[in-house]
Write a structure and sequence with these properties.
By secondary structure, the chain is an alpha+beta fold. Helix 2 (about 35-40) packs across helix 3. It is built from four helices and four strands, in the order H-E-H-E-E-H-E-H. The protein has a domain at about 10-40 and about 75-130: Rossmann fold (3-Layer(aba) Sandwich).
Amino acid sequence: HGACTGFPRTLGQAEALDRICELDLVISLNIPFETLKDRLSARWVHPASGRVYNMDFNPPHVQGIDDLTGEPLVQREDDRPEAVAARLRKYKDAAKPVIELYKSRGILHSFSGTETNKIWPYVYTLLSSKIPPLLSDEEN
């Protein structure tokens, strides 16, 4: 069993995946639109070096300024709030039939929240119930 993260995103991808493996568990993480938009829009870059800052998680020492060069940071077009909102809407439309497909097969498990550390224990419990524990050498 391999694990695919962030995939499949479209029905076409789901059908292609069906041809090569049989899924027995699909996890859907439901994160509020505003949370995703804020997180993605918090990304700023230093174009010359490619250094990426996130205003929430690893902000520059001085707002809008690269730590090493003192040059201005820019926001990529597709990270601007309006572009992020459009991308999220497009993704949601494409993903909806994929979610419905797995729901109809009874293999979809959905989790909602805004913070990984709060969602993960529930995901971990589900996975632990589905995957047999690995036995140590002494137990075999």
